[in-house]
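hiii so my PI (J.) wants the whole complex modelled not just the main chain, which honestly fair. so below is everything: two entries, each one labled with what it is. i double checked the lines twice but i was tired so who knows lol
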Amino acid sequence: MLLTSTVFAQTDTNPVAALENLAPPSSPAFILMDLTPSNIMVPENIQAFSIQTISAFSGDSSNGLSNNNYAVEFQPYWYVKRENMNFFKYNNLKKNKAVRTANSSPEDYTCYNVFGDAWKRASISLALMNGNFNVFENPQSYVSVGARTRLLSFKTNEQRSAIVSQYSAYEQFMSSQEVIMIFANPSLSASEKNKAITNLDTYKTIVNDFENTLNRKPLFALDVAVAYSHFMGDKSQDLDDAFGRLGVWASGDLAFYTPTIGDNGHIHFYGVFRYLRDGLNINPESGEFRIEEALDYGAKLEFELNNLSFGYEYITRDINNDNEERSMGSIRYKINNAFTLNGGFGKNFKSDGETIALFGIQWGIDFQPNVVLGVD
Amino acid sequence: MDSYQVGTNKPIKLKVAIATEAIPMSYAFLYHTVTDQAPYATIPPFDPTQKTGWKQLDGGNIVQSKVLRVMTFCRFFNPFPNVDTFNLAIKQIEDSYKVSINGGDEDPLDVNFKVSAFYEGQTCILESELKLT
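here's the output for the full assembly
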């Protein structure tokens, strides 16, 4: 289970400007309602199923979000039986069409499936939110549904060759007499065999090199998302349910591997585009809901150094021919697989030039260091 | 332990099938008795997702009253954000793994197996044991 907590703070005592348009923690259903440190999010390493919550500690929750904001996000890939899945297919490597034998060699995988991540990384999210979003006097409820995926990605010939080469090295080592003797010993339990193999120095070296190769980002990736939020209405205030907000967005990531700044060092150039159809506006004269359309477009430069990333993003929002802008620095530090710190500071949409700081903590709770499953 | 009647038939063949994101490596060993500590014949290790055909036991010779042990070691190289997601990947292995033996007096047999998964190192081991009569 993943829990996400986001703590908002700002230099101004009025929290409305900070909460308006801030942030996507993770799921599109949340992102749509503008709640996070960076508006450019990459859908990596999503859990098969996660529960997320956003709590706003703004000093006066009646002006912003209440503490009743929850989302679930799941990846259908992990719940659907895969056919003919293997390591190469998972890493988007395809055999040359001329190769049609029962016995394949790693060198047969010379092609790349640029759409290979679209299904694997697809996720669906559903959120329940409660807030006034600077529209209503009292917090109101919304239901959001969203989806996102990596539509396409591209790895260079050098990146593909490195994967094939690492596979061959791993296969060769796992076929060595040293490894065979461990598996052939019937007096060792499965756990003892696993420990004996994974404690071998050569195994550790090969696996570490292999993971570094696979961790290299694709030269280019395009991520897309769509989400819709519906206003549930409030009979006590004679408000019917209504169109809430619809968003469609895409972000491209051009990543250059820079081992000189770290084993997993990358420089990223992101471009982002977002279309927003926003029904969360009230006409001051008639009191009726009014729909506005907005286009966001901008860029982000990010340096990724192993577990530390920092960057700067600039996004323009064209709304009814009136431009707003977001200019924010962001920093992320991954302490371990279960704990990540996020931070953002700068000028956000509708913040009227005031500096905003935003910090988020994301953590996962893992139980059971290993599991044993029996099949009879 | 399950058994399979091979008689004096030859060749006796083995096939391993699996669908997984991990790299699986399969090992097959023949022993004279169940308590033998070392095998008398071995099939060279192979990745069953890449070498999908039948493999002959003991070089295609007659095998009688022997014990066959088949092991597959899977190592995932994709990162898992949590143990629950890892367990779903293991479930996929459970559902797709099949060790088959063929060539004896009986119809082809799917051999039972047990799974031991280790989240810490992103590995799992599948073990099958069969008496050949």
